[in-house]
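Margin note from the TA: students keep mixing up input and output lines. Inputs are the sequences; the output is the structure of the whole complex. Example:
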Amino acid sequence: MKPVNTPARPLILHGAVIAVLFALNFLLPDYHHGVLARVMVLAVFAMGYNLLFGYTGLLSLGHAMFFAAGLYGAALPMVHLEWSALSSFGTGIAAGALLALAVSLLALRTTGVAFMIVTMMFAQVAYLLTLYFGEWTRGDEGLVIPQPQRHIALPGLDLDLTSPTTRYMTALVLFSAVLLATLAIVRSGFGRVLVAIRENEERTRLLGFDVFANKLAAVTLSGAICAAAGATYAILFGYAGATFASIQYSILPLLWVLLGGAATTLGPLIGVLLMYYLVDASGPLLEQYLPGWKLSSLGIVGVSLVLLVLFFPKGILGTVRERWVKWLP
Amino acid sequence: MAFGPHLLLAALEGLVTSAVLALTALGLSLVFGVMRVVNVAHGEFYMLGAVIAWWVASLVGGHPAVGFLAALVISPLIVGVIAFAAERLVLARLSYSPEATIVATIGMLYILQQAALSLYGPEARPVPPPFNYRILLPWFGYSGYKLSVVVASALLLLATWYVLAKTRIGLVMRATQYDRETAQAFGIPVGQVYAGVFALGAMLAAVAAVLIVPISQAHYLMGHDPLLLSFIVVIIGGLGSLRGTVVAAVAIGMADGIISVFFSPTLAKIIATLLVALVLVFRPQGLFGETAR
């Protein structure tokens, strides 16, 4: 009998996605090439969020703080201490992981609605802190990382991160690493425990698993991945501003994951990609047909959120998995 | 000005903030208490109340008091209808799952904000107060209107308490809150009660906004601070407890008034938000609330 769940198929699918993204580097016109680099970095942010929201079933409304921790964890040492890009990437991830560990030690004492509000409030504190320490962070105006600093010096190799191709490839390397790591996690024993917690926390505890420790690991890992996205964003695009710490950037990953499909490995990429082009394309259209209405992307975000929870709660890949492709991870 | 009068002025300002905050937070608390729905769009109903008040007052000519009184009646009614429709069209179809409703109300927040920006514009506009009377204290003059806001809020709070505790409407609401299924079995139209509660919560926010709009202007982004403060009040006061909500609103409003006179507002917000998050972590039933059943 042919096994229903061949382990090779997901690997081939994910390899194919990465190969297509690699090929697109040579095919895309300049504008879309730049967009896709950005989308891949934001998709890493969404994948980090998905690990917690999709697989563990914890709805956080404060993930902007982890993205911002990575963003500032990398940008502050680069601007003020003139550290190299690579070591700043490290401090960015460390900042995000530590913050996630500290926040989760407190926030995981709560469940359900209280967890959402507590994470939202901690993120609000983080946002206000970026404004309060405006002398170093330059608040809303933001930090600009000087071009000469944005390169990676390896022995015998110097990568200039301001060139579009290197930037795209760096984003792709990070994206592929996190995508394959997510795939490995959700297929591992740890990943299955997380799903078990989402489905029935009490029963998981009864079976002898340490629910708190597993959740703690999930939040910290999710925070570290989001911080990696933030740090990469700062280094590749040379900018860190307080907007990225605002509540809006806690809502966006939720929207991306809901749209692409929660608890699917490729859903975050699809969600970010669609949302980016939806906002991008609707801007001029709305301007053309409804001039003077001052419609912004936030209105589209609002309508999408309501429509998604009402009519399409499983998202694109969630629905595809339910109807047609049962083996989709 | 000496320290004493300065403190008195700060306390008076704090009292006005408390009064309006108590009304707004009561709306949020009621919706959470009965429906178990965290309404993130609550601040936008407040904003709508103020914006519609400006619209009504600018349509009605004559003495400012006429326009203001018209706004005080019409604005909450319109907001109530919008909230009722939103509940029936969106929240009711989500069978009140906590995750789905919070996502939906976030969506509503952006939709209402965007609609206000499109239809009302980015300007901040004032509504003239119904009367201009300054109460002369020995140290400074104080707006009589501001004090009347405190009195009006107190009366509205009493009225809400009366409706909840003494009337049949309140009885039906409490029955739904205690046990939804048994209430349904006794012939209570639970769906309509939920929609009514959601509308009532939004109307309380709208009334608060109409009262405050002659003091601070109507603006499409004005819903953010009331939302955050209401969250703080409801959490400190205990989710779904009316008395706790009022006590906490007075405490938070006074603290906000006094702290922002003497300290940096950003630092005050940071400390307040952090403290509230910790209250929610270590004492989820609130400082005044009872333990959850």
